[in-house]
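Complex 507.
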Amino acid sequence: MSISFSNLEKVLTYLPMLLQGLEVTVLLSLMTVLFGFVIAFTLALMLLSDVRPFRRLAKVRNGSPARLKRLEFISRFNPLRLIAGIYVQFVRCTPMLVQIFLIYYIVFGFIQLPKFTFFGFIQFERFFPGIVALSLNSGGYMSDVIRGGIEGVDQGQTEAARSLGMSKGQTMFHIIIPQAVKNILPAVANEFVTIIKESSVCYTIGVQDIMFNVKSIQSASFIIAEPLLMATFLYFCLCFPTSKIIQYFERRMRASDQR
Amino acid sequence: MTSDNVLIKVRGLKKHYNGGTIRALDGIDIDINKGDVMVVIGPSGSGKSTFLRSLNLLEEPTDGSIDVEGQIITEGKIDLDKFRQKMGMVFQHFNLFPHKTILENLTIAPIIVKKEDKAAAEKRAMELLARVGLEDRASAYPVQLSGGQKQRVAIVRALCMNPDVMLFDEPTSALDPEMVGEVLEVMKDLAKAGMTMVCVTHEMGFAREVGNRVVFMEDGKIVEQGSPDKIFNHPESDRLKDFLAKVL
Ligand SMILES: Nc1ncnc2c1ncn2[C@@H]1O[C@H](COP(=O)(O)OP(=O)(O)O)[C@@H](O)[C@H]1O
Ligand SMILES: [Mg+2]
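Predicted structure with magnesium ion bound:
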């Protein structure tokens, strides 16, 4: 294999294809952060919930110590937390590539999506499963960050709010979340950078992102290295400034904390 | 002893952690009367905070009952959020809401919990704020206030809900010495105005001067209780004598 200027020149004629791919990658990533955040937030609330259908069992006083211990254990059972916990572990402990195939071939093998294109060339029936798979994955990872951000708010804030008669929901909405946002936002922004890179697996289900167009150019021109190098360059140009901008805002936010 | 003057009736109150290995409260019986200024003293870890936090069910008791104005709140049938409005609480570390101005700190609960009209809630908040001499700080944020100012705001925040009882958990322990006085002064005024108060504090001067009852706790139990004169000048149990020897 060789890298040559004449090859590069040839590949440059395909540049519009790569730029179209760039558009798709950005759109894919933005939508994923958005939906992923909603999923992550829901999961975080489930992980932090205090839904215990058998909580009354902890009040049982008679019985052997072993039985009381068992009842105490059952009383702590929280179905929402269990479901969210299993989900997060599933996302973390299976490969992204497997997840995207599961969604595309199995889930959307059963559910028929309407076939149409938007923005001129984006195929909905491939783009949509891509977003679903990426969002489900990213939501699983982000849920921990959001839970941490909410838990990171001083416990005294909850106590003060509850002692004033606020309900759990009011406390969460008016007191905890506004303070947690500051802990969460930088991590969500960083997740955006991660998603830009991770989204490249979507070419495997035919989403026409940057990587998909690299493959197309490679097979049309029989040139392997140069399209790949150009894609590398594009990804870098997307991620590097984004993460620098995030860093800048993060630093400014921290400075305003110490006023 | 018992009369319809009793506001809170606590019976056999227990709070255990780790399946009974830690007994933060181990059988508390006490009546709190209307207008009482009850001062709770005791060494650190004796369960004073747990006792206060159980009174408004921030802590779920393991056993026992609490009867507030005829309602048994430990039975789990009452509307806890509604009930907590009746009990104001002041914390050692103030726990003001840092993302809200002083005025917002004072009005948020009346507005969203009691659905009070915003203008009315603000008017009342400003009146109470003026009483503690902080009306000019209404639009400041908590970080801009000194510790003593924060604690006075925290007291006003609780008062804005019109509580029947005020619970204080070491309200001056996190303050620089020169700011203790201004907070105790506000508490004294409150006592004079007839507020029912339960105060955990290490300020023995306050206990003597303002309290009408003093309760000494150790190891999750009430060891001795009585008038300030009895507790400070004629202590009976050795444990109380030991404790007083250390703190006085
Ligand atoms: N969440 C908890 N888990 C386990 N032990 C606790 C918890 N909260 C309090 N305790 C224990 O209960 C006891 C009483 O605590 P506390 O009421 O805070 O005492 P005080 O306020 O008198 O210093 C202490 O031994 C403390 O370690
Ligand atoms: Mg304490």
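Chain A has a mean pLDDT of 91.
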